Amino acid sequence: MQSIISKGKNIKEAIDVGLLLLEAKKSEVNIEILQQETKSFFKLKSKEAIVKITKLEQNPNQEQPYKEEKDPIKLMDEFLHHIPDPGSESLVDLKPKPRPAPKSNELAGKVWVKNGELFCQSSPTHYPLVTIPDGVKVYRNEQLITEKSFVMTDIDFYEVQLETEEKETVWKVVMDPHKLRVELHIEPGYKITRSLLDTEPAQHIELMIDEKKETYNTLSYQEVMDKLEELRVKHGFHQNEIVKAMDAAEPGVFTIASGIEPIPGTDGWIEFQINTETQIGPRETENGRVDYREMKTIPNVESGTVIAIVHPPIPGQPGRTVTNEPLPAPQTIPISVQSGRGIAIIDNKIIAIESGRPHVEKRRSIAKVSIMQKLTHPGNVDLSSGNIHFAGDVEVLGEVSERMVIDAEGNIIVHQSVNMATLTASGAVLTHGSIIGSDVSAGKNNMIVTELGHLLGPINQDLAKIIQLIKQLMLSPGFKASDFSRGGLQPLMNILLEKRFKPFPALVKEYVETVKRNENYLSDKVWAETAKSLSQLFLSLSSEAISIGWMTELSEKLKELHELSQMPVEPNSYITVPNVLSSRLYCSGNVTILGQGSVNTKIYAGGKLTINGALRGGEVFGRFGAEINEAGAESRTPTIIAVPGDQKIYINKAMDGTSIKIGNVQYKFSETRSRVIAYLNKHGRISFE
Residues in domain RNA-binding protein KhpB N-terminal (predicted)? Predict the structure, then answer.
């Protein structure tokens, strides 16, 4: 018996489809319902109706169609007529015969593609299946088939529709803000044509698609020139780049016009006529030992010597934009030279009027040159000699004893040890012996300027707000009719400080006291002058009338000093010692420990920190990185090495318990590790090379 399974939206449709496929009537089949149709809300998870239809066998008693019987003798004659003659060539023709075309029963139940058309041949027992790939639409009797795979019959009409993708050429012309470069961005257009590939007959096939992409660039030379004219480009055309853009088959960027960039000039500078290189410290001999007696020193100068020549800035050369407009070169800045002790400036020449060591302090475009005198102390610094305060270099041939103090505006050199003492220098500090339980500072003036700069920031911000409020009050009619316009601004100032700016006087007082306490290290008198003005305005009951002009002038001066304090100072200060124990070292430049190392010491280096020996305990910081031979101790004494987030830490041997800190991220070694190079990665985490 012949049977099929049929589907439909409902039972009736499933039965009708089945009867049509079996070419039978309802009375000639047996119908079995396998699944009722179901529907859900919004047509989600709906099911089709499924039925099994079996064609009934005919009754043997049913009359069969009459077939005419042929005469047996007549059939024998027809058979003999088709037998070839024994003498004919066909009996000996051994040539291969062409393969016969497939019979219709070989294609039954199969589907195939030929010349871009879809064919099939159904069979009573099997129907072919077709899978539709992405980008292809198949219609059955002008109805879109939404299933991924479908059963194909030879009684329906099928149409395959292939999507053709097409994109126009996209381009734009971009000019940079400085009008120095014009770029042409282009994406050529394309057309994708799809066709059905031939497929051999099979019971189940997936339609195969062939894609052909044709690129075309519709950009014309006239379109580009019209756009350049719209942008008023008149200079620096690159015709060859325009042609390349017109012929481009891939997206690209082409520079089709360029201006002439200005050539920067040279800022003013100082040309030194003598050697002023900063001391590095003791020399290392050929056998690897450190010879502390060999010190590289800056040569002294005699009075009348020309130390340096001040050169004015050299202006740059202007450029030209693509719109043919002049482009000025960056402004050059002259160098401002301040003459310190023992220095005179005549006709752009810096001349020594005293004998001594030249000392240069530079912050960007500001330089101060002075002559440092030298004090040599032949023995120890102890109670018999007293403390030493000197406006120049100090050299001690002996040691520095307990509780003694050495203050120097230049360098400090100690040939023996420093025990529980205090050394403060504006320049460098060098010792031939160990530093034990002491406080050592190098670059004291730089430290003070930085500290004052931190105070000036909020002071000037509040002062600017006070000036703005006063100006607003002065514009009101009530102010003009009051006594404030005649008696000065002091009463109004007191009201504002009491009501709106209570913390302000305390900040001013801290600044004034810091200036007074460190006046010897502030060579520029402007710090003391601003402290005096702030004190008169906000701390004293002065009878002098206060004007808005005076306050504005003071605010401008505070702003300049704050900007000066933020400028990086050239590192002419450093500390170089053999060993250090239980001490505190602070330096605005490099700190170098050449001998056995550092034990339980706190070190701050505004430059680079280098420890050739071991670091046992304590906390150290290197603004421009840290390089340490060995860090940590077997006793796990807390040892912390810190650098900013943009620097690296180098440790030849980091012992268990050692901590490193880069920026705000900290890491503690849980085991001993060698050849450590630590840094912050792009995700803000500590990584190792």
Answer: 5-56
